Amino acid sequence: MNAVHEPWAVAADTQVLRFITAGSVDDGKSTLIGRLLFDSKGVFADQLEAISRSKYKRVQADEPDLALLTDGLEAEREQGITIDVAYRYFATPRRKFIVADAPGHEQYTRNMVTGASTAQAAIILIDASRARDGKLLAQTRRHSALAALLGIRHIVVAVNKMDLIDWEQGAFERIRASYADLAAKLGIDEFHIVPISALKGDNVVQPSASTPWYEGPPLLTLLEELPIADQALHGPARFFVQWVIRHGGDSKDDFRGYAGQVASGTLRAGDEIKVLPSGIAARVARLISFDRDVEEARAGDSITLVLDRDVDVSRGDLIAPADDDLRIASAFEAEVCWLDQQALNPARQYWLKQGTRLTKARIRGVHSRRDIHELQHADSAESLEMNDIGRISLSTRDALALDSYASVGATGAFILIDTATHQTAAAGMIL
Ligand SMILES: Nc1nc2c(ncn2[C@@H]2O[C@H](COP(=O)(O)OP(=O)(O)OP(=O)(O)O)[C@@H](O)[C@H]2O)c(=O)[nH]1
């Protein structure tokens, strides 16, 4: 995949906003991201030249086809759909942006979930020419439901292709009213909505002369102004052990450390911790980053942790503050989004992966399935099919340390993997 070069020539302490784009096929996601990159000068001249020569070009000869900046793979160009999550980077003097370009095709809800798990904002694209009467597509409902479920803080609805409906204010207002209904059903308290043309550039980076009735800022200004609070940095400390590092055997300078990434919060040398699920207590003796000791490590840092005593710790164990009240259980309920073409099957065994912990799991019951049109929980579901969202109960071979997804995203989320096909079967959130 061709990476777009990172225009990181902005102050190092500039805030980063991670967002995803979601919409149906052809709503214009690729064009929009291309426009954001292009108009914010994130595009290098040689790439622009390559695009204007491309055989895949789909627009008029004198305009670059902005979708080609983001539709990376040859194969997907040939299919005309985006088939993988691609991360793009761009920056303005006010903020850096990382965008996961989550594809819109029905069967790729999986990728939206992947991209959404670390996003602070979601841009939900609506094609104005298809939603002119105010009727929203099932995809818009599903992606919005997922965004709400994944706890994405900011929802920005971009009503695209307004140029195709002559910037009709009435249509925009109908779409706004329908979205407000949907948001209320999903418990989304607040959303932003902007009338745009990704192709022409109206209200993307520059305000548009075609929308005198729109009082809000262009999309990029909105993205620059969304408040960012990094939940992971401020949450309780969570560290999944990825590797146990041991050398020296029984000699005096026997070394034993636990390598991994801090998933949430901050760990400091001297902290009283416990190892879960066993509950064994210890104190952090050292934190080693690459080859030197550090006093503290924060969410996102990769470190090796050394404890003050010899305790039994293995890969997949969770390290948390000693006084934290985590639930230890091998049976629990969760909300899942089913991602596999093979429907949920209680007779099958699944791998459950939570952080670096991998254990076998079975599905004991399906309590409800959300109807994608009503978005209410319909009772008496027997199974979940691809793209369904539902509530299930699970049991696992090993006990797990559980956080609710709403309180700690890093430990409250898990995936299920089909043990026979090795496909990711579902993304789950602990309730
Ligand atoms: N008139 C008009 N056409 C647009 C606009 N935005 C995108 N398009 C066109 O709509 C088509 C689809 O745009 P893409 O950006 O490829 O759509 P996408 O949502 O990324 O689609 P996939 O990559 O297939 O998921 C292309 O022909 C674009 O040129 C717009 O604002 N106005």
From TrEMBL:
Residues 14-232 form the Tr-type G domain. One of its GO terms (biological process) is sulfur compound metabolic process. GO terms for molecular function: ATP binding; GTP binding; GTPase activity; sulfate adenylyltransferase (ATP) activity. It comes from the Bacteria. Keywords: ATP-binding, GTP-binding, Nucleotide-binding, Nucleotidyltransferase, Transferase. The keyword NAD does not apply. The keyword Nucleotide-binding applies. Its EC number is 2.7.7.4. Pfam families: GTP-eEF1A_C, GTP_EFTU. This is sulfate adenylyltransferase.
